[in-house]
From TrEMBL:
Residues 22-33, 59-69 have a biased composition (Polar residues). The gene is LOC110732300. Pfam families: TOM20_plant. It comes from the Eukaryota. Transmembrane segments: none annotated. SUPFAM superfamilies: PH domain-like (SSF50729), TPR-like (SSF48452). Residues 43-53 have a biased composition (Basic and acidic residues). Residues 1-112 are annotated as: Disordered. This is Uncharacterized protein. It comes from Chenopodium quinoa (Quinoa).
Amino acid sequence: MAVPSEESPEHHPTALEPATDPQENGAIQQSNDAVEAILEPVASDKDPKHEVPEPESLPSGSNDESSGQPELKKDEGSRTFTMRELLSGLKGDQGTSNNSTPVAADSASPLSEDSLYQNHAAMELINSVTGVDEEGRSRQKILTYAARRYASAIEKNSGDYDALYNWALESADNVDPDSASPSKDALLEEACKKYEEATRLCPTLHDAYYNWAIAISDRARMRGRTKEAEDLWKQATEYYGKAVQLNWNSPQALNNWGLALQELSAIVPAKEKHNIVKTAISKFRAAIQLQFDFHRAIYNLGTVLYGLAEDLLRIGGSVSHNDVSPNDLYSQCAVYIAAAHALKPNYSVYRSALRLVRSMLPLPYLKVGYLTAPPPGNPIAPHSDWKRTQFVLNHEGLYQLVPEPKTSRQSLSGKPVDAANSKNKAVKVDIPDIVSVSACADLTLPPGAGLSIDTVHGPVYLVADSWESLDGWLDAIRLVYTIFARGKSDVLAGVITG
């Protein structure tokens, strides 16, 4: 896929997919003459395990007794062990046994051989998934040791949902990402069963739903674009939804939910795709609204908009009368990718993608569009006095472009007085002056999608052409402010000014 040159802004690249974190697989493949983007989703990490710095300072049960949920009875096996504890236990095992069979590390609560290996099938899966190299053997030792400890906790307390959750998390987290063995899928399936049991015991355990969805997503990716993968992606979206319902303040879950929907949209029939993509856009946007500098969700929103533009371009128009044009979608896509790059300029994936879409920006601006504005100095003027004019947004602020009058009164010096006055009276919002940006609905505003920009000098009210257009303005202004607040305005300036 050739990089579109800046001299031909009308030309759009043929494909752009969600990109990955540079530390993950799916790197950009570069040639001498062009950049070919092989981009994969930027997924959020798994939730951290419940690590405890010192064994003697274990926290009490996390559930409120008034919640009506079972209270976890904590014991040594009902939590995730720190890496230090696992390695210490492994050293103890190696000191008392010269073979590969694990030996109980806790002599105070010895387990019978049958109970110690009550999940023998899972142990065999661990041995088959891990490799024969040193890293694989280390993974196997840690995974086997952790499995024995969690099995011990569950034997002592069959209702220990925290042990089930942590066991599942440990298993899924230690699956070799490069392994193509069928046992890898089987081990992920075993982890899913433990997540299922943990959520059955504690239906409000949102972390379990979140990581359960991640494990299901990993299984779906192994199946390509098949019916089985479609069913798994649908399950993943369901459990991400439950995780968000139980913990709405999770941009990571929203981001991954959007990615699962995006993957699902590539498999379902064409008639179902559009609505799924629209839902994915709403999840990415919700994630950004919770965390304005969440560059992964920002980037993923750009990629899904790009894909939607490509789809609309292929069918020759819009699916419904409310849809924006493909060119507008390309421009929106470029805004998000430019913002992600400004926030993380060292990410090669973002840099490469920016080269693909930079020509789609309305350079030397980040965003150009129309807003309805009141006459200068009178924000509550009659609706008939409000005028729809062009606005531009760059790294410095939001500015109204007021056309110069065709005829104007000449001053003694010969300068057009009215033109000068009109420029001075144009709406101008400097980014450092912004306090907040929000949608608003007020009877004093003309009908439409209201935009309120609160500044240190007072509020500025504008009206967008539609609520979809308003979303784009809100995101763009918030992103520019976030980039300014993070001290990266110079990076954004370099993007849009060249």
